[in-house]
């Protein structure tokens, strides 16, 4: 099946896998989640905003350079991007050595971010740091279908990855008990909250290399309708836009992850995706 041209790079392969089976509304993946929060972009964007469209274009170039490099390192270790959240990333690693690959990618991305400080900008040098959470276990993924299909990450490991990242200070990588048990014995010795501070300064293993993934479904349905034309229009210029952004937190998911609870939670997620898409369409019409 032909995919919606230009949209493939905006969707996760896990969303594609779930959307390919109408009866598959959720799945679990034995793996390691990686939540990265980068500090420093807010200050940079505020300074560049004063330069108007030129500043927006420069910010886009910096974002492309920083996130492009980091995403390349993730792919080389078999990881996948699940979500962007402003200047935060949520990644998933699976496979026999998922914890080792996730830890290796985390330290490599930290080094890459330090190197990014040498990127020149019209408002001075970059000062970027990142905090990272790395828990392992059964990662729960849900397919919420309405006017579009949304991949939702929830459950105990998703809760833990948020806790680990919030515990980590700038420049630190905090791992869970399970992740610690999956890594070499000398990987972590110092507690950080309910987790452990990763001692690695460099990756312990060579990256196995990226694997290409082909999409056998039309990925257009995996992108909110209000964004589809925007993302495929290559004529659009970079811009600073005033907007209201909302984050939705699902509370109580961990307690409801039994068979009956999964069905209830899937219906709730589906309603949320539909409401979200309606709001996006309404705002898009107002802008037009």
Q: What would your notes on this structure say?
A:
The protein is an alpha+beta fold and 288 residues long. The protein has a single domain (8-198, 215-287), classed as Nucleotide cyclase, GGDEF domain (Alpha-Beta Plaits, 2-Layer Sandwich), CATH 3.30.70.1230. 40% of the residues lie in helices and 21% in strands. The protein is built from eight helices and nine strands. Strands 1, 2, 3, 4, 5, 6, 7, 8 and 9 form a nine-stranded mixed β-sheet that branches. Strand 5 and strand 6 (149-154) form a beta hairpin. Helix 2 (41-49) runs antiparallel to helix 3 (52-76). The protein is globular. Residues 281-288 have low confidence and may be disordered.
Short description:
This protein is of the alpha+beta class. It has helices at 13-19, 41-49, 52-76, 98-116, 156-167, 177-182, 225-232, 259-287; strands at 26-39, 80-85, 88-94, 129-134, 136-145, 149-154, 173-175, 188-192, 195-198. The two termini are 32 Å apart.
Q: Which characteristics define this entry?
A:
single chain; 288 residues; alpha+beta; Alpha-Beta Plaits; 8 helices; 9 strands; globular
């Amino acid at each position: 099946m032909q995919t919606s041209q230009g949209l493939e790079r905006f969707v996760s392969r896990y969303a594609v896998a779930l959307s390919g089976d109408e009866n598959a509304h959720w799945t679990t993946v034995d793996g390691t989640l990686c939540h990265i929060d980068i500090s420093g972009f807010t200050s940079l964007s505020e300074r560049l905003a004063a330069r108007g469209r030129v500043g927006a274009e420069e910010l886009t170039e910096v974002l492309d350079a920083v996130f492009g490099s980091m995403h390349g390192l993730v792919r080389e270790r078999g990881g996948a991007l699940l979500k962007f959240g402003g200047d935060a990333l949520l990644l998933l690693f699976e496979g026999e050595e998922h914890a080792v690959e996730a830890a290796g990618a985390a330290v490599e991305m930290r080094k890459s971010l330090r190197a990014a400080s040498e990127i020149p900008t019209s408002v001075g040098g970059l000062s970027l740091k990142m905090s990272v959470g790395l828990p392992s276990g059964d990662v729960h993924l849900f397919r919420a279908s309405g006017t579009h299909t949304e991949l939702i990450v929830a459950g105990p490991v998703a809760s833990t990855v948020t806790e680990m990242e919030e515990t980590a200070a700038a420049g630190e990588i905090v791992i869970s008990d399970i992740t610690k048990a999956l890594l070499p014995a000398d990987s972590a010795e110092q507690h950080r909250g309910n987790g452990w501070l990763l001692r690695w300064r460099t990756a312990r293993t060579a990256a196995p290399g990226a694997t290409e993934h082909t999409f056998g479904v039309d990925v257009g349905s995996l992108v909110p309708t209000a964004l589809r034309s925007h993302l495929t229009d290559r004529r659009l210029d970079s811009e600073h836009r005033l907007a209201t952004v909302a984050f939705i937190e699902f509370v109580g998911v961990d307690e409801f992850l039994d068979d009956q609870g999964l069905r209830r939670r899937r219906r709730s997620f589906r309603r949320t995706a539909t409401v979200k898409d309606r709001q996006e369409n309404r705002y898009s019409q107002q802008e037009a």
